[in-house]
Amino acid sequence: VERLQSTPSQATALTTSLCDTAGPRLSGSSGDARAVAWAVETMQRLGLAHVHTEPVTVPRWVRGEEEAHVVAPLYQPLAVAALGSSPSTPDGGIEADLVEVTSLEQLEALAPHSLAGKILFANLPMARTNDGASYAATVPVRRLASVQAALAQAEGVVIRSVGTDHNRLAHTGAQGDHPVPAAAVSVPDAELLHRLLGRGPVRLALRLVTREEPPVQSANVVGEVLGREHPEEIVLLGAHLDSWDLGTGAVDDGAGVGLVLDVARALKELARPPRRTVRIVLYANEENGLAGARAYAEAHGAELAHHVVALEADSGSDRAVGVRVLGGPGAREALRERQRWFQALDVEVREDDAHGGADTGVLRTAGVPQLDLRQDVSRYFDLHHTANDTVDKIDAAQHAQAAHALATLVWFAAEEAVDFGRLMPEQQDTPRREGQAGGPR
Amino acid sequence: VERLQSTPSQATALTTSLCDTAGPRLSGSSGDARAVAWAVETMQRLGLAHVHTEPVTVPRWVRGEEEAHVVAPLYQPLAVAALGSSPSTPDGGIEADLVEVTSLEQLEALAPHSLAGKILFANLPMARTNDGASYAATVPVRRLASVQAALAQAEGVVIRSVGTDHNRLAHTGAQGDHPVPAAAVSVPDAELLHRLLGRGPVRLALRLVTREEPPVQSANVVGEVLGREHPEEIVLLGAHLDSWDLGTGAVDDGAGVGLVLDVARALKELARPPRRTVRIVLYANEENGLAGARAYAEAHGAELAHHVVALEADSGSDRAVGVRVLGGPGAREALRERQRWFQALDVEVREDDAHGGADTGVLRTAGVPQLDLRQDVSRYFDLHHTANDTVDKIDAAQHAQAAHALATLVWFAAEEAVDFGRLMPEQQDTPRREGQAGGPR
Description:
homodimer; 441 residues; 3-stranded mixed sheet; alpha/beta
């Protein structure tokens, strides 16, 4: 463990290599294909075993043109981004008065047909917290606004970006599959609209040109560090290879890809591998479908009983602050016994349950225990799903510490003879409203 | 002075009112016209005397579409903004390999015809400093790159944004009037291009659609706080009303407009006005032409001998750190004698010469002494000339402190019987390479 904690980390170099080679990599894009090729090549270079791709059929939604501006009381262009899977506006765009709501409760209370001829403006601010709790509290707006806009027969819907920054850059994200054109405006623009609405009616023009192409084939990329005693017992270590299209997916989730590949690298450099197999999975289509997670569970259904525990690294590049487990009664006690390992990195062994990531949720339903690497996410939602999600935002020192913490956690799972048990039925539902359980989407 | 230093400042409220009413206000745009109307109305509301507009013929350059992406070695869209007065690319855009230069010296050394069929990439980083010295050292690239691209017959030119942030937002700005399509890319994009160029050739696609319309009429807006003893002696207090088009010109120069109008408000609220007249001028067209400054000097040529001293507030909204003067031998001594007034605000009376602002440069040539309010500009070049220049960036407490410092300085000039003298010929050239002399462009 001392060795794993002192190896010079390659996490940021690996993330940079991915982002500079593939660029943005929304499911089904050319960047997605470049990322798959990069991952295969990189795993082979690191000397992983059984490096291969597993086919995943993914949606192919394409952002085209997007433009919004205030028409009255003044001309004011807005920083806007279509939400994932939003349809286009009619040719020439739409123009209508805004109706503002400022809470989930107000959204839920919208009456059918009540917004005919209007554009719904959902303006819910998100607070900055270290643990992502405010994201979980706010992000439901992204789907609910579209659902309620459809119900209320609005012409369109714009939401305040679900994010903590004050840049003129909108945060995109999945919003389900709804018939109303839906976009996010930047936080400064949402604040401006709110001020203008305080003075009188605000008329907005919105034009989105998007397209939904037929599904295409992408892939999960898999490789292993084979266990020296129990190669059939699998510690599953994941991250997602796809990203939103606006940035280069550096912190979401290039950073996680860098972390898990850096752990694999560190394990390969040891004189002998751990007792259990560490399997790296880089998932396709986490951002807008989870098709990669489902494909993995289907392809490996027979083998899931041998999945000892699963973890997804999807909380950015900042420092690890805690680890936690969800499993049988002995698992937490075993982790607590290794507290000293984590204290060396200023990482807390937490007593609350792990949540697992978005892609490991499917495995959770199959009873697979979960591990979480908790990271400081106080900066994460400044960048998340924006054009600003680029490699210059990564603090390599924090990223290295997170890699060392993750390597320690993986070593704990793969080397120690820990009985993680299986999840009881009541442990199998992914809890809502916590978010950032290693994998917010 | 105690009263001027304790009046609740309206600076941020005034700035917000301007930006929310006018929006972006590049010379000749509808926002420019709204700003002029707002300024007249606001000066009247504040009870200024002789509120009027003075006609200024301004250029009308219009940003249209702009798009850039790396074609090879990967597809990567870039955050790009045409530089002011850039021509359009040919229909369909241009596509060519990049040639990188990283210093002004390398730019100057480019040989005629040496970049035929290429796109010039001028990649000069700017450091963060409190005084703007690094801006002065870097900003010559904006003009020089276009000059040298034309000389070297490049297809186009992209510069690294002259700015200190790491947002995916490009910084626009004036670049003169040159035949080569010219744009800035964001700092993260410039860093990416640099990394890619380290691995091999980089092919770039650039498409700019801009247009130069016939000049239109805008206006300087003028109002006065009449002096109680020497109404004919003018202390000229300026800011510029126009802004670049990407943001709403909140810090450049809505903040300065807010400062000078707040000083006028505070003076009007005193029981009696200062001895000399304080004339407020809100200039047109500072950003791309200085036509407002020239028009003012022409219209008031006969009166310039009565301009006791001039100041332009054009350094953003952050706190004042110093004041300084350029004038006859007695002026600095007089300011030093009032040191105590400024110490109360933690503002230093500096011994070096004032530089004046961009718009007061013309008056400097006519011998008019100058005052500078130096502000902390360490954040200013994160926002300057970008879409991020919006009112949410203003720290109202710092802005209020700057307003109090400015009111103190104006009181010093208008109330005390200071003989500022006239500028000697050797004091009349605006020094280069300091920038941020109260008014970087």
